[in-house]
Amino acid sequence: MIQRVIWIVLDSVGMGALPDASDFDDVGANTIGHTVAACGGLQLPNLQKLGYGNIDGMLGIEPVEAPIGAYGRLAECSNGKDTTIGHWEMIGIHTPIPFPTYPQGFPEELMQKFLDVSGCKGYLGNCVASGTQIIQELGDEHVRTGYPIIYTSADSVFQIAASEDVIPPEQLYEICRAARGLLTDEHNVARVIARPFVKDGDTYVRTANRRDFSRKPSEENLLCYMKEAGLQVAAVGKIEDIFDGVGITQAVHTKDNMDGMDQTLRYMQDISKGLIFTNLVEFDSKWGHRRDALGYGAGLEAFDRRLAEVLEAMETTDLLVITADHGCDPTFKGTDHTREYVPVLWYSKLESFAKGVNLGTGKTFANIGQTIGDLFGVKSLAIGESQKGLLL
Fold first, then answer.
1. What is the C-alpha to C-alpha distance for residues 156 and 159, in angstroms, rounded to an integer?
2. What is the pTM of this model?
3. Residue pLDDT, tens place only, 315-339
4. CATH topology of domain 4-97+216-391
């Protein structure tokens, strides 16, 4: 019987455009396939032995003859391609109506209210921008005026950037909390994001002190059901932020992917029953949005090496799940997320585990949450199909 699930989300590591990608201007996107091609191949032996290359539609990664895991891909049924919508769908929350976005920046009336609630005397930006570029463009003016830099993207986000020397992180978080309280009803964006940065030589660079302040999800979800059943739900990385703490029993924030793997392994030593839920954000934030295919590929290889440690540390009654939440093809146009299938790998050392099973293409990311809930005997989710019978 499964006692513990280790669930790792490789943030943005999609595997090919969904059939409705034209609705999102993403026809032709393929994060994994194009990254492998740009790097001239990748060494991913641990992912491959689990069945990564055997997934239907996978490009660039060779299949193996006898995978030790079960493998498949999942489509997204919600209307979006961002972190919040993707993760929420995984745990059973369907989002048919997209969150609000602001391609022309935020309304002036809203921004005036922001000044009122935040205590800020002014702001800079208020436009769609690349986060790494806008701090170069407005960083000096920010330092001179003390005004925070406000920007958004194709996603439903209200991002606030500030130098740690001008607005310390804790003060920036308070400003973000004020903005989160303001952004309700028609302006209920998915996330308010704190983006601290510092000056390094002649350039401004973002720090690891990012924090996300999400809209609160429905409590009709897997995490809440597990918590109500007395199970541990440990969040690693930005998982706690994505769900605004809902359904989480303990959490740790991380500075990068390797720290995320360290914290996952630490929780594997401390938690014997329940869920360890990890997000590795650098694929998205550091390499995907910055269109750094070589960095993306190196990040995948680094994860694969650390994956060996997770496999070694697994108990017989553990279940490992590896997936993604959307795409962010580093070779594609623009700097935004891409609407893609996500891979899913399952693995357990239980003798009854069905090795080498091709799960095909699922209709929703919620197949993962529904399966985990079924394994623990908690309440069924509103969406998703359990794969328990195919795995064990």
1. 10
2. 0.92
3. 999 999 999 999 999 999 988 999 9
4. Alkaline Phosphatase, subunit A (3.40.720)
